[in-house]
Amino acid sequence: MKPFPILSKIAPVGLLLLIACGQSTPEKQLPSRSEAIPVKTISLQSGAFSPTIQASGTFSTKDETLLSFKTGGIISGMFVQEGDPIRKGQLLATLDLTEVDAGVTQAKLAYEKAKRDSERAARLYQDSVATLEQFQNSQTALQIAEQQLRAAEFNKSYSEIRATKSGYVLRKFVNSGQQVGPGAPVFQINGANQNSWTLQATVNEQNWSSIAIGDSATILLENVVEKILAKVIRKSQAADMATGAYWVEIQPETEIYFALASGMFGKTEIFPSQKTEGWLIPYEALLDAEGDIGYVFVTEDRKTAKKIKVKLGKLETTQIQVKSGLENQKELIVSGSAYLSEGSNLLIQD
After folding, report:
1. Could you tell me the CATH number of the domain that includes residue 41?
2. I want to staple 161 with a disulfide (CB 3.0 to 4.6 A). Which of 50, 93, 165, 350 is the partner?
3. Strands 346-348 and 37-43
4. How do residues 15-37 score in pLDDT, each as one tens digit?
């Protein structure tokens, strides 16, 4: 009986595997300069293009308003909360009028005294006891007291806050019993009931320069299938100091039938009317790009490669804009560029 017949059959196979593992796979050699390198090319033709600009931002209404008291004091009553609907003229908050009423009373007393003084000066002037100057001074004092009374009564009328339009309370900044100064924000309201929503979208400097007021756009909301037709109605004239970005304001052209809230996120696609002259090339043709500068290979005789520098524009889904550098060039190499150098021989594949 032969010992271990199975091992005798496995051994030759294992030896072959060990030999195979010990052999190194030859590395792929780059083509030599004299060897023709297979490439594919496309014809170059300049034209005017206007790619879609995609941006995002938040919704707001053009009539958002901060409401405040004209005079300072202690808040005695707050009658609405954030999110409450309001109607024009509705009372929203009041100040404690103790101090304000005291001011009005003082102004009334001063006016009544000035009126008595003026009447007495008029009688004395008629009796030639008072001079014309004394009579005129009493008239002036009466007019000053009258204006002071009107100012005090005006301030009292603005010691309460009433809604300037129908809409919603967006924010409430203070509470009842809190002291506020003149002009300090108490409420922020908007006219949401008037359907005046706009989307303020952030764009970079390059896109901002391409967008013009009146350009068409669409707005897309999460969980809303249909796109909203819109247009650009306003654009910033200075960069945001914190982010360095610019914004454009997009207004829907059709009535919105679903609920929106101030600060809600939305996306937009803007279609600039301004056209850019240049070329659209595939990403594969671009080499060594940095910033708005890149390099491509072209061929002038369909035999040798030539590397040239180009100025880049906007990126698209599968293409990139070239603003300059391809003038007088007819054929662009779009595949095989990784193996090319200046003057490489070409084998153009159709």
Report:
1. 2.40.420.20
2. 93
3. parallel
4. 333 333 444 444 445 555 568 88
